[in-house]
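Anyone up for a design puzzle?
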């Protein structure tokens, strides 16, 4: 019997559902070494792992996307990352138990991420999650990306639900902004790639969790 408060559970991908930071950090350090720059410590990279190629390249090289070097660096980064996308990426500890719990109640769960579709699909297949999730909305699925609410609203629509019938778990400020704008319950995953200058209690999340296992009580 369905005993959850919500009719669907939606997750951000990087830093919420899957710990992808080790492979993203390896890609950045490969790029740095290739360009005769010193590699960075993992702890210095982890907090930008949810910020995509722009965040990684900005951290490593101090440049933004309008810099003429950016497209070349991004292409090299993505090429390496694509070929090593799941070398060390795994579900966060406790997440398998949560997914199994949701599935045992026959509640659909999905992913809303700013990660591009090709990388998302490859990662999900590598982790055998592609056939388990009921919907996947990526950064290039729509014209808008988080923090715009449209990707969350669209995910709910795929599941034939209203946004307020769903909850969304994410580890970045944009995730909570998107959830609030979509009128969806927003849960902040503070175990994820939290920026040092972000204080979870100021984001307006409905719940803050330190571990995926805390979701069970909320759900």
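Challenge accepted. My sequence:
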């Amino acid at each position: 019997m369905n005993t959850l408060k919500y009719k669907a559970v939606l997750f951000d991908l990087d830093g919420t559902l899957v710990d992808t930071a080790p492979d993203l950090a390896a890609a950045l350090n490969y790029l740095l070494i290739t360009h005769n720059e010193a590699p960075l410590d993992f702890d210095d990279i982890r907090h930008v792992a949810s910020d995509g190629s722009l965040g990684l390249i900005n951290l490593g090289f101090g440049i933004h996307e309008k810099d003429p070097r950016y497209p070349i660096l991004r292409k090299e980064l993505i090429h390496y990352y694509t070929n090593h996308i799941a070398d060390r990426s795994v579900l966060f500890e406790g997440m398998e138990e949560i997914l199994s719990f949701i599935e045992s109640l026959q509640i659909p769960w999905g992913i809303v991420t700013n990660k591009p579709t090709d990388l998302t699909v490859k990662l999900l297949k590598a982790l055998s999650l592609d056939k388990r999730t009921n919907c996947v909305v990526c950064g290039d699925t729509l014209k808008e990306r988080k923090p715009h609410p449209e990707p969350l609203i669209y995910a709910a629509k795929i599941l034939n639900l209203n946004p307020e019938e769903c909850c969304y778990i994410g580890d970045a400020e944009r995730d909570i902004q998107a959830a609030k704008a979509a009128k969806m319950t927003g849960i902040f995953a503070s175990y994820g790639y939290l920026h040092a200058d972000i204080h979870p209690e100021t984001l307006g999340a409905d719940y803050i969790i330190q571990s995926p296992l805390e979701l069970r009580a909320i759900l």
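A detail worth pointing out: The first strand starts at residue 8 and ends at 11.
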